[in-house]
Amino acid sequence: MLIIDDLLFFPVRSILWTFREIYNAAQEDVANEAEAITAELGDLYMMLETGKITEAEFDQREKDLLDRLEEIQARGSLSEDEEEEG
Predict the structure, then answer these.
(1) Per-residue DSSP letters for the chain?
(2) Burial letters for 39-78: b for 16+ Cβ neighbours within 10 Å, e otherwise?
(3) pLDDT in tens, 25-71
(4) What average pLDDT score do residues 21-28 get?
(5) What CA–CA distance (Å, rounded) separates 43 from 64?
(6) Residue 74: what pLDDT?
(7) Mean pLDDT across the stretch 18-27?
(8) Are 37 and 65 in contact (CB under 8 A)?
(9) Packing angle between helix 2-50 and helix 55-85, nearest 10 degrees?
(10) d(Cα 19, Cα 2) in Å, to the nearest integer?
(11) pLDDT at 78 over 70
(12) Does residue 85 or residue 68 have the better pLDDT?
């Protein structure tokens, strides 16, 4: 009976495994994107300190990067809430 059950449920388990792997890959991409934005902010501060960009350019680019980072964190907190509920 166990072999028959395994054969019958194999397609379902395969689909669930595929979706789980896609979800994990998406979470990893979000984490990598946040790290990239943080690194870009560090570079931006360095450019301001060395005089390669003006204060106005810095402010605009910093605002854009911080907005993107907040958006990523908001998406992350929403997905964590969904995991706790599910």
Answers:
(1) -HHHHHHHHHHHHHHHHHHHHHHHHHHHHHHHHHHHHHHHHHHHHHHHHHTSS-HHHHHHHHHHHHHHHHHHHHHHHHHHHHHHH-
(2) ebeeebeeebeeeebeeeebeebeeebeeebeeeeeeeee
(3) 988 888 888 889 999 999 999 999 999 999 999 999 999 999 998 99
(4) 90
(5) 14
(6) 86
(7) 92
(8) yes
(9) 160
(10) 25
(11) no
(12) 68
pLDDT for position 82? 63
Tokens 């990523």, located at residue: 72
CA distance 64 to 44: 12
**Quick one: which of 76, 72, 70, 77 has its CA closest to 33?**
72
Q: Residue 11 is encoded by which pair of tokens?
A: 């397609």
φ/ψ of residue 51, rounded to 5: 85, 15
Residue with the two structure tokens 């402010």 = 59
